[in-house]
Amino acid sequence: MVQRFEAKLTMPDMEEDRWRDHDGLFAALAGTGGKIRLWDHARTEPYYNQTVVESESFWSGGARWSGGAAWASGKLPPMVAVGESRARGQSNVLLKGFPPSLSGVLRRGDLFEIMPNGTPADYGHLYVVTRWANSNADGHARVYFRDGLRKGVRPGDMCVIGGGGLKPSSVFRLASDDEGNIDVRDAMIGSFGVSFSEVLPHA
After folding, report:
1. What's this model's pTM, rounded to 2 decimal places?
2. How does pLDDT run across 6-27, given as a tens digit for each residue?
């Protein structure tokens, strides 16, 4: 049985300019026929990044970049790479590109998204980490996750773990053709709730 993510949004009351914009978005999605990319607003980067204090580093001799900035260090890179071939359905993968010899680079409940050849997939390729993952001396970490791989992966496929403006995300469609109906009340205030289901690849 293949599991999929679901997103349920209850939106606050909106003024007319905002609810009209959302109404147009739902119309463009054309019911369950359209796709939209969403991310979990509570988990936009690994928890590890919340446990470290970002610091600045300099070139030897105290030199900086030409614009005067220093290196930002301490947090994980927002993207790493797949380090091995794995078939559809597998529930662990070797990822590389982490700082070496760190404990808990990815932790239970973190999210990551695989991008084949560095390009976001047009289907859900988002996963939840199920075990604490440590990096070795080479910056590699074996990561266990749920659900099994939706498609096979190859070395060099990119993996968004989040941070630096990047967020692990997935592809969704409206859960039914009736989603997105907006209730407009006096003073032209609109409110609505909407449900989405993740788009899965064909076998």
Report:
1. 0.83
2. 999 888 888 998 899 998 988 8
DSSP lists the bridge partners of residue 56 as: 72
Rounded CA-CA distance 68/51 in Å is 27
DSSP structure class, residue 67: T
| R_g of the chain, CA atoms, integer Å | 20
Integer Cα distance of 148 and 133 in angstroms: 17
AA letter at 124? G
Give me the residues paired with residue 171 across strands.
Answer: 37
Token couple for 134: 């440590």
Consecutive H or E run containing 26 = helix 16-29
The whole-angstrom separation of Cα 172 and Cα 1 is: 19
DSSP 48: H
> Taking Cα atoms as reference points, which of 75, 77, 80, 81 lies closest to residue 52?
75
